[in-house]
């Protein structure tokens, strides 16, 4: 096959022309496209809302980060200067080292050769603050002393903010489900799927997702979600419930042998009375088939 | 100040790339790509949605000077497909067995559309027997009818590689399709 010219396509061959032409003409119906469009639009709206909130949080933490970063850079430059000076012969009349601390004035150290021999130990330069570092102005030393412990009201942490956002999403999803808008509910809950699995809200959100997938008859998606949840480190009680759901999904799809296995495993993990009965009924249905 | 700047930036980007109109224009293309790479089924609905939501998230990375919007969308859809195929591999054989029996959607459709859908299902099923790299090139060349240089640009591979993958892909596709069509005729 020559790279410079396009070879004749299989769609033009007599053997596969029919099937490939039909396959290339296949497309979603207008109703299907519109249905998915609505889901995408609501998903984008949810993302935009959470995105604006997170960018504001990022902007507020940026200022703190820049302050800390500037201080680290100054410290890094000073320590590099110290090591470079140690590798070389100590110069007379070397420049003073000035450490600038934001909001605390500046501290100046004497030239390197002013350090006494006792202060150089095993190749490390030890500067004793009281002896060899002269702080100017005097107030800046005072800032180094440990401040008295003051109990302050801490502002709400990021974790709490996330938690409230999660709760709001779950509330919105439930409200959408009440109005039979299960797709919107699913979209809202899907944004919670990236949360920490050990979070209590994570499992609640996932069980709600499963419930809505069952209602929408999306068995393949439901089964996929169950399997992904079973792979997470979760409590045995929840695992039993998930296995029961897995059995239901498999039974619905006619995969009886795997459904039986799932029901048996669910019973093995321990279920409540009503759920045990459901698992037994599932096993009976499988046996009948 | 920074928050205001970010919101201005967000507003500008939204004006540049409206996901809804993008979906209206290229939704069918993304559906076709996903069906060919991952096979037909209910998972395509989710993958289409995930693709466009990812496009919304990454809209700031799109540079219209550098690539066509279809190329950019294809990249996202192909990544979604790979992720889906990997997760499917993790789920193991049980999930595969479950998905081997696709649900029959009871929808009143004209014969031609129904035939096209059946053909698409058959082709997508046969395409699953090809390695993903060959599948990509085969679908773009044979079904999307793109030419070699365009595929090379879209997949960011040399044109020679396009022809090599196409050659092997066609060989495998023909073998499997012949078997499939033969068995259908026999039935």
Q: What is the tally of beta strands of chain A?
A: 5
Give the overall shape of chain B. Answer: globular
Global shape of chain A: extended
* Order of SSEs of chain A: HHEEEEHEHHHHHHHH
Tell me the radius of gyration of chain A: 33 Å
> Which spans of chain A of ≥5 residues are poorly predicted at pLDDT below 50?
55-68, 78-142
The share of residues in extended strands of chain A comes to 5-15%
What average pLDDT do the residues of chain A reach? 68
- Averaged pLDDT of chain B, please? 77
The helix content of chain B is over 70%
> Termini distance of chain B?
71 Å
Report the sheet with the most strands of chain A, covering strand number, pairing sense and barrel closure. 3 strands, antiparallel
Assembly of the depicted chains: heterodimer
Largest interface: A-B, 56 and 67 residues
User: Mind summarizing the main beta sheet of chain B?
Assistant: none
Write the layout of secondary structure elements.
The complex is a heterodimer of chains A (289) and B (187).
Chain A (H helix, E strand, L loop, with lengths): L16 H9 L4 H58 L9 E4 L5 E4 L10 E2 L2 E2 L3 H4 L1 E3 L2 H4 L15 H21 L3 H9 L9 H16 L3 H12 L5 H17 L3 H14 L3 H16 L1
Antiparallel strand pairs in A: 1-2, 2-5, 3-4
Chain B lengths: L1 H15 L2 H20 L4 H15 L11 H23 L1 H7 L11 H17 L4 H12 L4 H8 L3 H28 L1
Helix pairs in contact in B: 2-3, 2-4, 2-6, 3-4, 7-9, 8-9
């Amino acid at each position: 096959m020559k790279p410079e010219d396009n070879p004749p396509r299989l769609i033009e061959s007599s053997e596969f022309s029919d099937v490939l032409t039909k396959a290339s003409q296949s497309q979603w119906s207008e109703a299907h496209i519109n249905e998915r469009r609505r889901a995408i639009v609501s998903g984008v709206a949810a993302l935009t809302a959470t995105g604006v909130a997170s960018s504001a949080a990022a902007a507020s933490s940026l200022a703190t980060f820049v302050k800390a970063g500037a201080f680290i850079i100054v410290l890094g430059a000073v320590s590099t200067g110290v090591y470079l000076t140690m590798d070389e012969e100590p110069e007379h009349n070397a420049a003073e080292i000035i450490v600038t601390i934001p909001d605390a004035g500046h501290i100046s150290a004497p030239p390197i050769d002013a350090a006494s021999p006792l202060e150089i130990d095993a190749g490390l330069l030890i500067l004793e603050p009281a002896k060899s570092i002269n702080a100017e102005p005097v107030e800046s030393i005072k800032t180094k002393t440990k401040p008295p412990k003051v109990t302050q009201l801490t502002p709400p942490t990021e974790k709490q903010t996330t938690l409230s956002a999660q709760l709001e999403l779950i509330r919105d999803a439930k409200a959408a489900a009440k109005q039979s808008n299960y797709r919107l509910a699913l979209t809202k809950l899907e944004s919670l799927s990236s949360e920490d699995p050990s979070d209590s809200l994570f499992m609640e959100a996932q069980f709600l997702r499963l419930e809505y997938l069952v209602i929408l008859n999306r068995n393949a998606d439901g089964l996929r979600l169950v399997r992904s949840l079973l792979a997470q480190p979760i409590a045995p009680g929840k695992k039993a419930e998930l296995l029961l759901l897995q059995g239901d999904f498999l039974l619905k799809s006619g995969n009886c042998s795997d459904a039986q296995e799932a029901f048996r495993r669910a019973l093995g993990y321990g279920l409540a009375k009503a759920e045990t009965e459901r698992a037994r009924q599932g096993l009976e249905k499988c046996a009948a088939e | 100040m920074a928050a205001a700047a970010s919101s201005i930036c967000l507003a500008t980007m939204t004006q540049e790339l409206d996901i809804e109109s993008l979906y209206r224009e290229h939704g069918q293309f993304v559906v076709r790509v996903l069906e060919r790479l991952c096979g037909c089924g209910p998972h395509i609905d989710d993958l289409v949605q995930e693709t466009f939501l990812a496009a919304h998230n990454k809209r700031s990375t799109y540079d219209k000077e550098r690539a066509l919007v279809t190329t950019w969308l294809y990249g996202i859809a192909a990544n979604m497909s790979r992720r889906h195929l990997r997760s499917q591999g993790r789920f193991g054989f049980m999930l595969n067995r479950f998905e081997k029996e696709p649900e029959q959607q009871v929808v009143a459709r004209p014969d031609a559309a129904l035939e096209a859908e059946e053909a698409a299902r058959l082709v997508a099923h046969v395409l699953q027997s090809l390695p993903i790299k060959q599948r990509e090139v085969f679908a773009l060349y044979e079904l999307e009818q793109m030419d070699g240089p365009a595929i090379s640009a879209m997949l960011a591979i040399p044109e020679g590689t396009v022809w090599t993958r196409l050659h092997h892909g066609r060989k495998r596709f023909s073998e499997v399709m012949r078997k499939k069509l033969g068995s259908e005729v026999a039935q």
